[in-house]
């Protein structure tokens, strides 16, 4: 697992260790790679923690080997940072993905590679409803890097180097902890900060639509994505996960319904043109029937996402 | 110009030197880069020949500078070779394109970059008619590398590093000289060898459809592509050139009409599964109305392509 010290990586690692098996095979070893030491499963004899750069081919060569059955490739420089630091984004998001695929090819075990991609692969003049087959027309460097990595994963799959599957993640919310540099970070802040008694500023107008998924279902989808039989995937390895399409104004209203007006009053609005420009590239409506037909699941609505955060994370923050 | 020692590069170089201007600016210097010395314009004081690897960042840094106004990026490992030699294709077709864009960005002159892409960016379950906006679903490593380079060019254009335009070339035929390693090479051989008194073997069935353009119009399109005002391009920088859609059987029939039955009798048919598998990914029908609206032109039919070859190249071969 790359990006294993991240929020999603940590939850996925704990889930895999708790399950003890994946696709009917036991989890004998879980290798957690990140630039800082991953803390999930500390003390568990099945865990090997590797600290290093995902774009370091020597490190990848040591990390992926003939015993590697599944690779979760979560490491990424997020959208806002990839836009601000072009070379860094190219190195981690494009080179990192490419070198990981090369390492899998060299290892020879044809691992299943679960790659987390993003709605940022879409943009520009989009159809009213986005499907798995909508053209990739990214309007950010992050989206460009993810789209290239998707194409490379498909080619390595076609060549038999890996058995790849691309999961296009909606914005994962609510993330606990500190804000990150993702342009979509406010989608977590709008719930997390008010619930922590802190005011938050939303940098886009209330009518901006987002496509969101709780951490619960993000982790469930990653596991399910790894377990999908290749024969069920057909011609395309990329799947838009079943997110909830919701406006930012509706997100604030859901917070008020679930947590009350006093909490919701801590949300304020001040437009940030840089974030707004990125948000303008996000699609409004989605057809995720293919994901659902494959058995992948999402949240019922944003109220459920707020409640999931309060159940899963809020006790630890208080 | 990268790939300047190639067939198309040589013709384009001679055309540019003959014109002496491009988009209203005089051609003061023409830098011809390739792994072997380009011979076009030999002795012309405006020509600087650079021998080296297009994936060598130091060389690119020396070649592209603040005076660079237009870059023609033609260098590529062709489809058959990129499929057989994966690493080589990745290095030349993907790294070469990426490093060239980085060199343009470092030079700071925001050059127009004319990138030759390919129908190989399409494949799989295609619509009946392919347009400029059809999703990129390559089914070969070559197509994957071209698609990634297209995406990177679009991002560098959006960021203001270059003013890019992608010309998706139909199969350029008839190429004079020796066969190359392109899977589509037979589209030249089917005319060139019989006219030279040599028998030729076509590796696909007559009903396989191709999308073809003469060298004349390929060069004209490259020049016109460089001269297109950015404002005319709108949201997408990629243009499918106005090729002729024709079956391989019709190509043989055109040869017979133009050059006679004795010449056409030198065409024989023997299927090659490797070539056929690649050919199966080529689309059948095209909507190139956007290219035409932008003033780009192509051949009337395959008879005209055979005649163009006989006029432009045959005297030199005899």
Mind explaining what this structure looks like?
- Helices cover 42% and strands 18% of the residues of chain A.
- With 318 residues, chain A is an alpha/beta fold.
- Chain A has a domain at 7-170 and 214-243 and 286-298: NAD(P)-binding Rossmann-like Domain (Rossmann fold, 3-Layer(aba) Sandwich), CATH 3.40.50.720.
- In chain A, the strands form 6 sheets. Chain A has a 4-stranded parallel beta sheet, sandwiched between helices. A 3-stranded mixed beta sheet of chain A has the order 9-11-13.
- Chain A is globular.
- Chain A binds chain B through residues 86, 90, 98, 124-125, 133-141, 144, 147-148, 151-152, 154-155, 158-159, 235-236, and chain B through 86, 90, 98, 124-125, 133-141, 144, 147-148, 151-152, 154-155, 158-159, 235-236.
- Chains A, B: Keywords: Carbohydrate metabolism, NADP.
- Chains A, B: Residues 1-193 form the NAD-dependent epimerase/dehydratase domain.
Can you tag this structure with a few keywords?
four-stranded parallel sheet; 18% strand; three-stranded mixed sheet; homodimer; 42% helix; globular; alpha/beta; Rossmann fold; 318 residues
Class per helix and strand makeup of chain A: alpha/beta
State the fourth-level CATH superfamily of the domain at 7-170 and 214-243 and 286-298 in chain A. Answer: NAD(P)-binding Rossmann-like Domain
CATH architecture of the domain at 7-170 and 214-243 and 286-298 in chain A: 3-Layer(aba) Sandwich
CATH domain topology of the domain at 7-170 and 214-243 and 286-298 in chain A: Rossmann fold
The count of strands of chain A amounts to 15
Helical content class of chain A: 40-55%
Question: What is the average per-residue confidence, as pLDDT of chain A, rounded to a whole number?
Answer: 95
Largest interface: A-B, 25 and 25 residues
End-to-end separation of chain A in angstroms reads 30 Å
Proportion of residues in extended strands of chain A: 15-25%
Unreliable spans of chain A are none
CATH class of the domain at 7-170 and 214-243 and 286-298 in chain A: Alpha Beta
Secondary-structure element sequence of chain A? HEEEEHEHHEEHEEHEEHEEHHEHEHHH
- Kindly report the spatial arrangement of strands forming the biggest sheet of chain A: 5-6-8-12
**Oligomeric state of the chains?**
homodimer
C-alpha Rg of chain A (nearest Å): 19 Å
| Number of helical segments with 4 or more residues of chain A | 13
How would the global form of chain A be characterised?
globular
Largest sheet of chain A: 4 strands, parallel
